[in-house]
Amino acid sequence: MSVKPYGNQIGSKKEQVTQMFNRIAPKYDLLNHLLSFRIDKLWRRRVVKLIKPLRMPDVLDLATGTGDLAIAIGRKVKPNVIYGVDISSGMLALAAKKVLKHQLQHKIVLKEGDSENLPFEKHSFDVVTVAFGVRNFENLQAGLSEMARVLRPGGMVIVLEFSKPLSFPMKQLYRLYFTRILPWWGGLISRDKEAYSYLPASVLQFPDGKDFDDELVKAGLNPVRRWKQTFGIATIYVALKPEQ
């Protein structure tokens, strides 16, 4: 059974995740960069570099949140269009302000939607990206299968997600920070302790590494690269949709 943000409350994981992000949206950017020591920006830049060689791609950024990855792509790549989709209206409201600030409204279209039931036709996109979002899916296979469905043959999926370091002493330091310090610090600033207790719980439960590659294969995608970031704190996964 998948972990939920508010385990003692009524509601599906999807409903609770939506509620959680609507609640923490005002503090999300501050905490995201603060708790990651801003290393998350480096990881996003590496995702953007993987897309940069493509010519005028149609890009779908799922779980776009406040739009950080969509904006980074819009600033460094020459896309035809970028759709940023998220289930949280609160997060999208902040994303819209940031898109206007960066004058990318002609490139980025924001849309409220469910990553497990996308409002797009099959073969609509050249690239699908997700940064720190797949572990929030209620049904991981449904979400990955939707990515495969909307991708064009030969299209690319790029997933940036937290993972679990395996080597001493990073493994021990990471667990201490992630399970003790981060929930306390995040809960204090956001005033939602459950949200920042859910973060480490969802990461520890998530099938990272080869296990996630196996999930991509089940969804009909071909993993081509697994790129560990910063001692394995996060991983960038790259997969292609087979040519037909």
Please supply descriptive tags for the structure shown above:
globular; Rossmann fold; single chain; alpha/beta; 244 residues
CATH first level: which class? Alpha Beta
Going by CATH, what is the homologous superfamily? Vaccinia Virus protein VP39
**Average pLDDT:** 91
Strand-residue proportion: 15-25%
Distance between the termini: 35 Å
CATH architecture: 3-Layer(aba) Sandwich
Percent helix among the residues? 40-55%
Order of SSEs? HHEHEHEEHEHHHEE
Structural Rg: 17 Å
Low-confidence stretches: none
Shape summary: globular
- Largest sheet, if any? 7 strands, mixed
Task: Tell me what you see in this structure.
The chain is α/β, with parallel strands linked by helices. The protein has one domain (13-164, 207-240): Rossmann fold (3-Layer(aba) Sandwich). It has eight helices and seven strands. The chain has helices at residues 13-35, 39-51, 68-76, 89-101, 140-150, 170-190, 193-205, 210-218, and strands at residues 58-62, 81-86, 108-112, 125-131, 151-162, 222-229, 234-240. Strands 3-2-1-4-5-7-6 form a seven-stranded mixed beta sheet, with helices on both faces. Helix 5 links the parallel strand 4 and strand 5. Helix 1 (13-35) runs parallel beside helix 4, helix 1 (13-35) packs across helix 6 and helix 2 (39-51) crosses helix 3. The radius of gyration is 17 Å and the shape is globular. The protein starts with 12 loop residues before the first helix and ends with a strand.
